Amino acid sequence: MQTVLLDFNTRAQEVNEYFLFLEGLITEKTKLAIVLGDDGVQKVTFIDPGLAKTLKANGFLLLYNLVESTMRNAIEAIFDELSSNKVSFNSIRNEIKKVVLYNFKNRSPNNIHSKITDISIDIITAGFNRKELFSGNVDRDEITKTARKYGFSHDTDYSKTKHGENLNDIMRKRNDLAHGNKSFAEVGRDTSIGDLLQIKEEVIEYLKQILQNIDDYLVKKEYLA
Fold first, then answer.
1. Which of 25, 48, 175, 206 supports an S-S bond with 161, CB 3.0-4.6 Å?
2. In sequence order, what are the residues at sequence separation of 6 or more whose Cβ sits closer than 8 angstroms to the Cβ of residue 205?
């Protein structure tokens, strides 16, 4: 989990820096300098309103990227823990047994037989593929479902996280952009920079608390039956 937390903190810092820069542009605390001609003369100007909408929409992409990458890394950490501790299939909780069997039945024997030495242990990770964990579908409901699937807590401090309720809107906006259903200007048009900053703070805090829940789950070995 230390690697997961480090990656999360790095990505969250990247998001924070982007939003700080965007806030400066929109509130005109940060100005743009345009070079005119070959003589190097600069003209100081403010951000174009249309570009501001595009940059706000891009903020939703950054937030979604943080959400999905964080959850993918966290679930992989659970399987890494099971593997490193050589936990057997018989000793894990029923919820995870279902996940393992589902993963395993979707694999060709030709692709996994070489990974298995002790089937009671190796079956847990033999069918795991991190690329199949999520695919543009991570919102609060998906995280709650995942928590119940593995047995870790999805409870957070509502006053700081709104229990991740903003993730639903972030996912929808991300998918609208990814599939071309809406333009960047359309997506960024109706969200103020103040609201966007508030959403960002709540999402980062929500993910931080979910990661803490997963870390507690691993430390206490709550993956065991």
1. 206
2. 156, 157, 160, 161
The residue segments making up the domain with residue 103 are: 2-219
Supply the pLDDT for residue 120: 87
Kindly tell me if the per-residue pLDDT of 69 is higher than 70.
yes
Please give the DSSP secondary-structure letter assigned to residue 179. Answer: T
- In a domain, residue 69? The reply is yes
User: What share of the chain has pLDDT > 90, as a percent?
Assistant: 74
**182 falls within a domain:** yes
Q: What is the pTM of this model?
A: 0.91
pLDDT per residue as tens digits for the range 9-42:
999 999 999 999 999 999 888 877 777 766 777 7
Residues in CB range of 13: below 8 A, 6 or more apart: none
Cα distance between residue 136 and residue 206, in whole Å: 18
To which H or E segment does residue 36 belong?
A: strand 32-36
Query: DSSP 3-state assignment of 46?
Result: coil
Query: What is the dihedral sign for C-alpha 96, 101, 107, 109?
Result: positive
What does the pLDDT read at residue 111? 67
How many residues comprise the chain? Answer: 225
Output the pLDDT for position 37: 65
* C-beta separation of 44 from 31 below 8 A: yes
Q: What is the rounded distance in angstroms from the CA atom of residue 103 to the CA atom of residue 86? A: 18
Secondary structure letter of residue 58 according to DSSP: H
Distance of CA 21 to the CA centre of its chain: 22
- From residue 97, give the alpha-carbon distance in Å to each of 61, 67, 79, 88, 225: 34, 26, 12, 10, 10
User: Rounded distance, CA 30 to CA 47, Å?
Assistant: 9
